[in-house]
Design goal:
Shape: flat
CATH topology of the largest domain: Alpha-Beta Plaits
Distance between the termini: 39 Å
Strand order of the largest sheet: 1-3-2
Number of helices: 3
CATH class of the largest domain: Alpha Beta
Bound molecules: zinc ion
Order of helices and strands: HHEHEE
CATH architecture of the largest domain: 2-Layer Sandwich
Amino acid sequence: MAEHLASIFGTEKDRVNCPFYFKIGACRHGDRCSRLHTKPSISPTILLSNMYQRPDMITPGVDAHGHPIDPRKIQDHFEEFYEDLFEELSKYGEIESLNVCDNLADHMVCSLTLTLIPAPRFVHFC
Ligand SMILES: [Zn+2]
């Protein structure tokens, strides 16, 4: 039995633990999910939910006033954000990966995952 439970942990067959949360640390059902969202007690990777604010957040390619945005400006906006964030986070350790999710679903939109190799003086990040 224990072997069977271990083999299905975090998969679609697991009726207790949420497979989406297990794989990506987010689930479209959020707190209303019928399955458990188990947060790891320790991890080199953290999720920064909805951190990047796209200039065309409401409608892709259009600003909040309904005016079209030049795709190059959207790209420049993102690159400036990414460079600023990368520079700031580098103060806390070596960045192994920094990914920005381009998914438009509410639970994932503009979220970041960060994997950091802490510097020796690293104490607390959040
Ligand atoms: Zn879930």
